[in-house]
Amino acid sequence: MTDALVLGKGLGRDFHDGTAQQITVLRDVDCEVAKGSRIALVGPSGSGKTTLLHILGGLDKPTTGEIEWPGLGSFEELRPRQIGLVFQTPSLFPALTAAQNVSLPLVLAGGDATTDGTAASLLASFGLAELADKLPEELSGGQAQRIAMARALVIGPKLVLADEPTGQLDSKTAHLFFDTVLRHLEGTDVALVVATHDEAVAARMATRWTMDHGRLLKGRPGGMAA
Prior knowledge:
Elements lengths: L3 E13 L5 E13 L3 E5 L6 H8 L7 E5 L9 H5 E4 L11 H11 L9 H8 L15 H13 L5 E5 L7 H15 L5 E5 L3 H4 L4 E6 L2 E3 L6 E2 L1
Parallel strand pairs: 3-7, 3-8, 5-6, 6-7
Antiparallel strand pairs: 1-2, 1-4, 2-10, 8-9
Helix pairs in contact: 3-4, 3-5
């Protein structure tokens, strides 16, 4: 059985700016995310990090190349069970409380969130237990982002993709937040890919992928980038 959760070959992504002009965001990207990977995806704004994460998570399709999920199953099975996603902005549902937002993947997967204690446990782990009944409009940006991470982890996915998860946190809170994430994943085969500008976060990951004008440059050992 392969250890590869995701395989991308020759990935390219083009967009149009509303005119006839074509903008190329990804260029000929080869990548593999294996079980247990800890990958920091770094590079300047506009280099293609978010687009690559969205393609890895099945939220977007490449214009060229192929993407497959050999360790996760079919495309239809990816979410919410196999992949947990954290967006650059928290993307919480405004009508749901913090606890309900965290529990949502369990509900979508057919579980009973009223009897499953995972959501409450994760909220406590992230220091957010007292916010369980708060609506998103009552939360700070940093609190909402921590809740979004708890939501991504609640169902026990095989792959977590996070886009700038510490972007709205001060350095001390970001450090504690990332401690919690890594501690939660310790000893598991769950792969974690984090797009980040935070060097302290990137330094704690085993592998570094660097985006440069849509190209993925080879990083430290532990994963594959070409």
